[in-house]
Structures are given as C-alpha cells and as structure tokens.
Design a protein that fits this description.
The protein is mostly helical and about 200 residues long. It is built from 9 helices and no strands. Helices cover about 65% and strands about 0% of the residues.
C-alpha cells in the first residue's frame, strides 16, 4: 500500500506566499522590459491579483473561523498593497492597477450591473420580447449617454452581464430595472449629454 504524504494547510500557505513573490517579481521584470500595457503583462498582473485575493481570503477566513493568524504573516504582500493604496490615495494609477484593465475603461461592479440592464433590455427588444423599435435610443436616453457609449456596452456584453441576476424577469420588470438603473447611472455623474 502506497503512503501518500499529507500536505498541511501551513504548507499550502507557505507555497501560496512563495507563489505571490514569484508572480510579483515576474510582473516587475515585465514592466522593466516594457512599461506599457501588453496582453501578456496584463494577464500576469491579473494572475498576481488572483493570488493576492487568495491570500487575503485565507487570512480572513482563518482568523474568523479559528481565531488564529496564519504564519508567517504575509508582510511583503501587505507592504505591496500599502504602496498601491498610497498611490491611489494620491490620485495616481499604479501600473499594478492600470495593467489589469481590459479593453475600454474598467467598470466598477455596481456600474457594470446598472449598464447590464440596458444591454439586456436592447437584446430583449431585438428578440421581440419588449415592444420597442428603437431600444438603443431608449437606453441612451435613460442613461443619458451617447450612441457610442451604448455601442461600446454592446461590444463588451459578455463582460458586462456576467453575474448579473436576470432570470425570470418579465418584460415589464426588465424595462423597470433598466429605467431605474439608467436614472441611477445618470445621477451618479457617469452619463453625458446624449445625442438625439
């Protein structure tokens, strides 16, 4: 009978911290070779953020569930995050933030959800589920944006509607959600004078 060597949670934790150091170093090397965003560098930086996310969640869950701290404490990771937050606090966009952005301006979760109902409304109208001959114009006016903005949302459809609750919405409910989301979006100052 073969014995399988058990891996302890502490071993997983140390391995994760090493993975973070290696991922960060790789991103820094890529940035030194080319300070401008590239798809490869963006993928590497997103990978680093994914590792950081796992570290933060492991720290939080362990503390909340067992009342103990994981050792060693991820001081280097926290120092990197402190440097990034310091730059953000000064109004600067560090490369470890700007390099993760996908095509177009990155959307915040709440903004993405608001826009999603506009995109879903257009799709429903084009399918004939909602009687609207000019759904793009309806959305443009509801959100107080340009036709170009709406077209950009449609092009980024998969990114925008991912994870947005939309099952079992009737046509009337979708229209209501779109109008409410559009009003909130416009009030937030995101909108711009729309083209007629």
């Amino acid at each position: 009978m073969n014995e399988v060597e058990a891996v302890s949670p502490e071993d997983d934790w140390r391995r994760l911290l090493l993975e973070e150091v290696e991922a960060f170093s790789r991103c820094v090397r890529m940035d030194e070779q080319n300070p401008f965003p590239t798809p490869e560098k963006s993928a590497a930086v997103r990978g680093w953020w994914g590792i950081v996310n796992r570290i933060l969640w492991m720290c939080t869950r362990t503390r909340m569930q067992s009342g103990r701290e994981l050792q060693p404490f991820p001081a280097e990771t926290f120092a990197r995050l402190a440097n990034i937050s310091e730059e953000l606090g000064k109004g600067n966009l560090p490369s470890f933030v700007s390099d993760v952005a996908r095509r177009g301006r990155p959307l915040w979760r709440k903004e993405r959800h608001a826009i999603a109902y506009g995109v879903l409304y257009i799709e429903a109208a084009k399918r004939g589920d909602i009687p609207d001959r000019a759904p793009n114009k309806t959305v443009r006016q509801a959100y107080n944006v340009t036709a170009r903005a709406v077209q950009g949302w449609i092009e980024r459809r998969d990114e925008i509607v991912a994870g947005v609750p939309r099952r079992h919405l009737t046509a009337d409910q979708l229209r209501e959600k779109m109008l409410k989301s559009g009003a909130e979006y416009s009030r937030s100052g995101r909108g711009a004078p729309s083209e007629n």
